[in-house]
Amino acid sequence: MAEERERLRVSDAERQAAAFSLGTAFQDGRLDLLEYDTRLAGAYGAVTYGDLDRLFADLPRPATLAPPQPQYPVYPPPRFVPMSSGRGPVGQVRGTALQILLFVVTFGIWAFVYLFQSHDEMKRHTGDGIGGVMALVVSLFAYMASPYLLSHEVGGLYQRRGQRQPVSALTGLWFFPGIFLLVGPLVWFVLTNNALNRYWRSEGAR
After folding, report:
1. Measured between alpha carbons, how far is 149 from 203 in angstroms, rounded to an integer?
2. pLDDT digit string (tens) for 58-90?
3. What values do phi and psi take at 13, rounded to 5?
4. What pTM was estimated for this model as a whole?
5. Rounded Cα distance, 136 and 117, in Å
6. DSSP characters over the chain
7. What does the alpha-carbon distance between residue 176 and residue 184 come to, in Å, rounded to a whole number?
8. I need a labelling partner for 15 at 20 to 30 A (CA). Which of 46, 120, 199, 206 fits?
């Protein structure tokens, strides 16, 4: 019976629930940043219950990972309609832990590269936004505005699809004045980069 359950496919809602539980485990200190980033990618890429179970082998098991009990007849699914709201190429998934490491070893210089790449990809994908060049100009002359702009544009990707925005310009408050909390900029980056990665994965990026 257990083997049969492991082969059952999970739903998008169950992937989201698993990602939320991983976030809770990260906040509780059960996972470090690298483990959280790796498992979060695994949650969104999971196909079966077995895939999700492996992510929680050493963590409290989310109640939502129990397979659903059918109560109604199962009908063929409707014709698939892509969710994509973009017109251009899909951007690159960038591991949160790796980006933070690059920020540290380059003494912050990598932040300019990251901002350019992220804004450039969103501009080419949707045709909207400030684009990489303008983002670089803003980061050079008004750096404190950059976190607000990036979170705003990432949230806009979801808004175009009629979905709830996981981040917005208000998320930039974690960067400033959150910088006085020391961990504020880290919280901002984890929230924003993970939201951007989730969007790219939902569009087919790996």
Report:
1. 22
2. 988 765 555 444 444 444 544 444 444 557 899
3. -65, -40
4. 0.60
5. 9
6. -HHHHHTSBPPHHHHHHHHHHHHHHHHTTSS-HHHHHHHHHHHHT--BHHHHHHHTTTSPPPGGGSPP---S---PPPPP------SS-------HHHHHHHHHHTTTTHHHHHHHHHHHHHHHHHS-S-HHHHHHHHHHH-GGGHHHHHHHHHHHHHHTTTPPPS--GGGGGGTTTGGGGSSHHHHHHHHHHHHHHHHHHHTT--
7. 8
8. 120
Return the axis-axis angle of helices 33-44 and 184-202, rounded to nearest 10°.
Answer: 20
Q: Tell me the C-alpha distance between 119 and 125, whole Å.
A: 10
**From the CB of residue 57, how many other CB atoms can be counted at a distance below 10 Å?**
7
